[in-house]
């Protein structure tokens, strides 16, 4: 699994792009490529957990313009090996 941590600002471009981004996340979840995703309390950023490897996550992020929208910063992309859970 790969975890992606984002940081947000109140940039209008980010807020305008968010609905399309969330639709894309729902589709990725339904396809099994995304395990979970959501914003931190206070909307200061978000955590996304993908089921694929780093190359697949890089490809998915490149296909979604939200990750390069003003007001969105990718803080970290890390592999994760959970010991409990799905």
From TrEMBL:
Family note: Belongs to the YciI family.
Name of this protein: YCII-related domain-containing protein
Record-annotated YCII-related domain positions: 12-81
Species of origin: Micromonospora sediminimaris
Highest taxon above the source species: Bacteria
InterPro entries: Dimeric_a/b-barrel, YCII
Lineage: Bacteria, Bacillati, Actinomycetota, Actinomycetes, Micromonosporales
């Amino acid at each position: 699994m790969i975890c992606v941590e984002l940081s947000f600002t109140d940039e209008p471009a980010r807020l305008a792009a968010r609905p399309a981004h969330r639709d894309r996340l729902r589709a990725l979840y339904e396809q099994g490529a995304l395990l979970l995703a959501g914003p931190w309390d206070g909307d200061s950023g978000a955590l996304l957990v993908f089921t694929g490897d780093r190359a697949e996550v890089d490809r998915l992020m490149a296909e979604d313009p939200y990750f390069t929208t003003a007001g969105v910063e990718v803080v970290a992309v890390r592999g994760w090996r959970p010991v409990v859970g799905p």
